[in-house]
Amino acid sequence: MSADRAGGVQSLERAFDLLERMADSGGEVGLSELSATSGLPLPTIHRLMRTLVACGYVRQQPNRRYALGPRLIRLGEGASRLLGSWARPYLAELVDATGETANMALLDGDEVVYVAQAPSRHSMRMFTEVGRRVLPHSTGVGKALLADLPAGEVRALLARTGMPAATEHTITEPDLFIAELERIRDRGYAVDDNEQELGVRCLAVSVPDAPTAAAISVSGPAGRLTEAATEAMVPVLLAVARRLAAALADTGVPAGAGTGLPVG
After folding, report:
1. How many Cβ atoms are within 10 Å of 33's Cβ, its own excluded?
2. CA 129, CA 137: separation in Å to the nearest integer?
3. Low-confidence ranges of the chain (pLDDT < 50)
4. Protein fold of 3-69
5. Distance (Å, rounded) from C-alpha 192 to C-alpha 222?
6. How much is the pLDDT for 264?
7. Most buried among 74, 92, 192, 242, using CB within 10 Å?
8. What is the pLDDT of residue 263?
9. Residue 4: its pLDDT value, please?
């Protein structure tokens, strides 16, 4: 590899690293913050940021700090659609194994967005529109996603969004919700028990080490998702989540390979 090409590749790696650091910092940072976290000298960061600003991926604010730019939205939307298409064979597997509707959702800012679904074959089934956004505190996927975050970050998110009650069963107190997340971490899965919609129960797990925070779930009428059904479905959810994580990491795990865990 030539020196010029090696330098170009290194600059590209550094630019993407800076974008990820900006996202981790809430989307807006100063050059000194980037220098402190990345270890790069200020002149290098300034040069890279000028290029990103010129391309529209970063913009400079009136306070001279830098924020993620609007052109990233199109890339993010395209990546979300692609992620959903990769997930659909695994969601179909969940439907085959559990008989219930399967979903995949991402944490996007302070909201949960559904990016893929495979519907149940039952005449009475749950349906969540792909692209729908909800607050995380009243959903199984939202709880699974927030359980992976430090308690301080969760409290800050809840302070920004509030905790409106979708039903009489929704948890609306931050301390109770933090305690619920501790239980989720202990048992390895989350439950939405009539908290988003009366009569509906949902089981969810996070996708481990996914490139972005993701969770998968099965949902159906509370009368079908009983405690006995939960005991049978959770191992399947966990197994599919691990295989989906491996596929997203490009380990070559084929979609559609059986879990070996019969349900129902």
Report:
1. 16
2. 19
3. 1-7, 251-264
4. Arc Repressor Mutant, subunit A (1.10.10)
5. 10
6. 42
7. 192
8. 42
9. 44
Q: How far apart are CA 58 and CA 50, in angstroms?
A: 9
Altogether, the residues listed in the chain come to a count of: 264
Strand order in the sheet with 58-60: 28-29, 66-68, 58-60
Structure tokens at 127: 């349906």
pLDDT at 24: 73
pLDDT of residue 8: 57
Residues paired with residue 216 on neighbouring β-strands, in sequence order? 104, 205
Tokens for 22? 């900006």
Put residue 2 in one of left, alpha, beta given phi > 0 → left and psi -120 to 50 → alpha: beta
Q: Where do the structural domains in the chain lie, given as residue ranges?
A: 3-69, 74-248
Fold equal for 3-69 and 74-248:
no
Written as six digits, the tokens of 58 are: 């970063």
CATH architecture of the domain 74-248 equals 2-Layer Sandwich (3.30)
Residue for token digits 């865990």?
261
